[in-house]
Amino acid sequence: MPNDLSKETSPYLLQHANNPVNWLAWNEKSLQLAREQNKPILLSIGYSACHWCHVMAHESFEDEAVAKLMNSLFINIKVDREERPDIDKIYQAAHQLVARAPGGWPLTVFLTPDEQVPIFTGTYFPRELFKKVLARVEDYFQMHASKVSAQGEALRNALRHLDQSIKAENSGDLTLAPLETAKERLEASFDENYGGFGKAPKFPHSTHIELLLMAWRRTIEEQEPDLQSLYMATLTLTRMAQGGLYDHLAGGFFRYSVDHRWAIPHFEKMLYDNAALISVYVDAHAATGEPFFGLIASNTADWVVQDMQSPAGGYYATLDADSEGEEGKYYLWTPAEIEAALDADEFTVSSEYFGLTQAPNFDGKAWHLLINTSLENLSQDLTKHKAQQKLDSARRKLLAFREERVAPSRDEKVLAGWNGLMIKAMARAACHLDRDDLEVSATRAVDFIHSKLWKDGRLLASHKDGRSRFPAYLDDHAFLAEGLIELLRYRWRSSDLVWACQLADVLLEQFEDPGGGFFFTAHDHETLIHRPKPLSDESTPSGNGIAVRVLLWLGYLLGEHRYLVAAERALKAAWPVIEQYPEAHSSLLQALELALAPPEIVVIRGQVASVMKQWQRCINAGFHPNRMSITIPNDEDALPGFLAQRQPRNDIVAYVCKGRKCLEPITQFRELTSVLASVATHPAPAKRPISKKRKKAPAKHKTALPGKLT
């Protein structure tokens, strides 16, 4: 008989609705039941695409004997970490403090019934060990009440000290010094052979790559530009896209690589990873002009539109790692399967290109596709053009063959924050890859979120099966606002600017700490044992970092002083951790640079669409992370703030401002190009901290070009 989770919309919770465990959702009724029965709570947190969540479910939660033990000893509560990241953040942090080990999913936390403080924590437990843990935790709770209470109070104090922000007025002056330190530390952990940072497992760390591209951009006009930063960024992007982290048939990236070579991934696909990677591949394409980076971004965007966008417009959350109960089964191949799907030439080219002529790379039995050689090195009997044709044909046939398999399940929740990340990615790709269809995709998502998740001036976090639920978090507001701003760079729509400002106002009214920075939950949110104020980047960018960027862009665009003051207050409050661990705070570092090197704002007013598009393309050409352009038709009136002063003049006019300093209006295209070339988009070298002598990139790798597998 189904348990209470059958009433939920979360695919993860519904996966457990028929367990023999008496699962409950996290709500006041469930917490009150624990208090009334004085039973500790067994809190289990996961998400629908999580492989080890599935394993623990099959081993323990579907087992009658284990379920009987759980039901007799505990109040059992299931949480989808994608719906309730507030709860997940708190208990992940608690686990790291208690266990002195990294967290992860499934997260298993035993809580006191009265205040929900942890008694014991863990992640995945094998069945027999889990049974022992259940008995021991309940026994400890009954026999050592005073120790449990003391431990809970100590943990509360430790959680309070995790947020190392200070009052803004107590901080020192902001400088760019942490950006140089972060680059040096990334260089120290950089893999010179395969790119990326650190050892296996390897994650994409898109915010690191963004930081390196910006480091190179700051020095582009110097005598010795920072080619090492460009090299680290482009080599990492090249190796990830050549390896098994990338889906070479459908497009899109998997979660992470289990090895240092990016060969074998953990096979789940997350919306937020692909949003971040589309953005950074577009940036690399804009910075280097390399078609390969643009192709990867374009193909990934196509996959998102095809497989991850709902008919109503919102973007879905995840694709599972498993199919038919096995991780990666949907994506794996044998040579016999490939040979059956292709003609002789296609099979020869594909086998060489994807490495099927070598030993199996997955458990010694199957092949996961990755680029094993360059196109030039394929069969000598074919020209490069012919080889490319055969490879493209093979990909189409293999994809069609694969689509006949049992596909991984898709979590069709629409999450406001993750949609904000993808809206930004689609808008950026539309702009730099000249793809109007991606702007259409982004706008459909905006309209869906506005109609389903924006209620009475407040944002909701999740939509599924016609139900919009849960008060939205810091990340939801910040990510969505930045997505709207990015979309405004490509095409004007006054309602999007109005909504971005409304979201910024909610950030200030409901999330801001009076001492500076932003809490993860709103002031009127449910009271939990801790109120996080996250500053570092995690699997998604820091909500504080993105919020500061949003406030800076809107502040300069509209001349809204209170936005600029709040942004500076947040940076000063975060300054201690930015200084100490800059490489963990890439999003805040990007905001710091924007604050210390005032952005370039270009507003175009015009009436001929083709001419306006020509000017817009000129402004957006290349990689200019600290430049914003907005193109507003002449018939648009009632503009807010500084925009009201940008009046139409004849057929077209451009207003170019650096921070709060503006040039005379420009009405000639040649003058615009000259001005854009002369206005610096980065701080003067003398203002940047000088550390050790800049290391040059290897001579043969000034940028890491695709196809070079050395």
Polypeptide structure, described:
The chain is an alpha+beta fold and 710 residues long. It is built from 24 helices and 22 strands. A five-stranded mixed beta sheet has the order 1-3-2-4-5, sandwiched between helices. Strands 15, 16, 17 and 18 form a four-stranded antiparallel beta sheet that branches. A four-stranded mixed beta sheet has the order 20-19-21-22, with helices on both faces.
Secondary-structure topology with pairs:
Layout: H1 11-14, E1 24-25, H2 28-37, E2 41-46, H3 51-61, H4 64-73, E3 75-80, H5 85-99, E4 107-111, E5 118-122, H6 127-143, H7 145-160, H8 177-188, H9 206-218, H10 227-242, E6 256-257, E7 265-266, E8 269-270, H11 271-288, H12 291-308, E9 318-319, E10 322-323, E11 326-327, E12 332-333, H13 335-341, H14 344-354, E13 367-368, H15 384-402, E14 410-411, E15 414-415, H16 416-433, H17 436-453, E16 454-455, E17 458-464, E18 467-471, H18 474-490, H19 494-511, H20 543-558, H21 561-580, H22 586-596, E19 600-606, H23 609-620, E20 627-633, E21 652-658, E22 661-662, H24 669-678
Parallel strand pairs: 1-3, 2-3, 19-20
Antiparallel strand pairs: 2-4, 4-5, 6-7, 8-9, 9-14, 10-11, 12-13, 15-17, 16-17, 17-18, 19-21, 21-22
Helix pairs in contact: 4-6, 8-9, 9-10, 9-11, 9-22, 11-12, 11-16, 12-16, 13-14, 14-15, 16-17, 16-18, 18-19, 18-20, 19-20, 20-21, 20-22, 21-22
Proportion of strand residues: 5-15%
- The overall average pLDDT, rounded, is 93
Counted beta strands: 22
CATH class of the largest domain: Mainly Alpha
Instruction: Give, in spatial order, the strands making up the sheet with the most strands.
Output: 1-3-2-4-5
CATH architectural grouping of the largest domain = Alpha/alpha barrel
Domain count: the total is 4
Multimer state: single chain
